[in-house]
Design goal:
five-stranded antiparallel sheet, 34% helix, globular, 8 strands, alpha+beta, three-stranded mixed sheet
Length: 262
Amino acid sequence: MNGRSAGRYAVAVGADGYRSTVRPAVAPEAAVRYAGYGLWRGDHPADRGADGPRSPLLDDFVAVGFRGGHAVFYRIPDAGSDGYRQNWALYGSVPDALYPDGKAAPVPRGQVTGTAAAHLHELIARELPPTWADTVRRTELHELSINPMYDTTVSRYAKGPLLLAGDAGAIARPHTGAGAVKAIQDACALERVCQAGETWPEALAAFDAERRGAGNALTELGKHLGRMRVEDSPDWPALTPDDFASWLHANTHGWQSAYDPA
């Protein structure tokens, strides 16, 4: 509680992430479900690239699609120097042995095993064009991490004096690009209902009514995008430009994201 002593409070906000200890008290039926694939992430100093610091990979945000996933490449500032790091993220399969008990958990940076990395290298050799596969290979073992994809919907965002915010509520896959945005929207909604309501029960009921539907809808959008872009991704080389435009339209048509007006 940020150094505050234990005491009595009118309301407690559960903003404690996807492994929330508050969620079971508010929505005990909610389950964190593993989607069956993960997000591999890595980065390395830009001058480790084939062309050194002048590498053309740094110039653009690039997306590469393949059957069963996709990858993105872009540069980020290097906190340890004045230069940049080549960053990448790849949605795709992870070794079955990584989660033998079915309980998927993140593998933090520096804890990815050589066996898991070998699975990644086989995947990129099979699916990525040489330039992009080489970029991933230049990432050293201690620079890798793996995040499993989760889905969670909740029956309520508030119960009694407790409320949920951010990933403590509904969890959406990162395909939505809305994790931080959803948390900010939850905070803004809480401010509005507190200003409008005369009592805590009124405020929390209004918060639940506003954010439960939005959070759960974002979860469903993430599942839909996961099916379209990973689980049932298209045969990319076979797509014409018109085919791709139709596919992209089908990705989002009829779905509301966190960036759309309510």
